Amino acid sequence: MRLYLELAKKSFQRQVAYRSATLAGFATNLFFGMLRAAVLIAVFGGRANLAGYSVADAITYTGLTQALIGATALWGWYDMVRSIKSGEVASDLSKPFDYYGFWLAQDVGRSLYQLLARGVTIMIAYALIFGVSTPGSIGQWALTLLSVALAMLISFGWRFLVSTTAFWVVDAIGFVRMAYFLVLFPSGFLVPLDFMPGWLQALCRATPFPGFVDTPVTIYLGHARDGAAAGLIALQIAWLVVLVGLGRLVAEAGRRKLTIQGG
Question: How far apart are the C-alpha atoms of 126 and 160, rounded to whole Å?
């Protein structure tokens, strides 16, 4: 356990070293978030409510989704793919640690830093510029934080699983980039799932992707409370178990392939 804690710590410290990149990411996220907020305000067209969202909720939604970009690495994560492509993976697999835990620990450190340095600061900026909706109780805050933590873990589970394609594909970057791009719509990042037709909502909710963004946002805004919120969190946990299991199975198959090839 100490090894994985140290890996997470070192990953967090590595992120701290790139202050300019963090500042640039914050500025970019805030700029595009404000554009998205302006578009949603225009969509309301003077209406007080749309699909259960108030104008304040819609603005808060854009802030929250922008705040989660870095923590969940919505725009991509290629470290594992590059290590497989370079052959560094052979060294990693020969070391006495769990391969999945090795990458998870590093991603936890990265995600926590991104959540604090970019996520929290974006929400503070939104509160100062627009004013935002906030959870109405300590219990709602606690459920939101739990859901955000699960969102980061589910996102990693998906990214790890997708990255294992590099064991079989010579240049997996293009495939992986497409897989990340396809997540943006069903996750609720581009538009709230509640704004979609019923059949499309059902299709999106049949995937693990709403757990990346839509679930923590829904709980934060209070659109799911008590039993409904607990049900959404249970669904996140179920998808996490599935993704972790699949990721481990496929990574083990990839390890055997490397051994057979003598790599």
Answer: 32
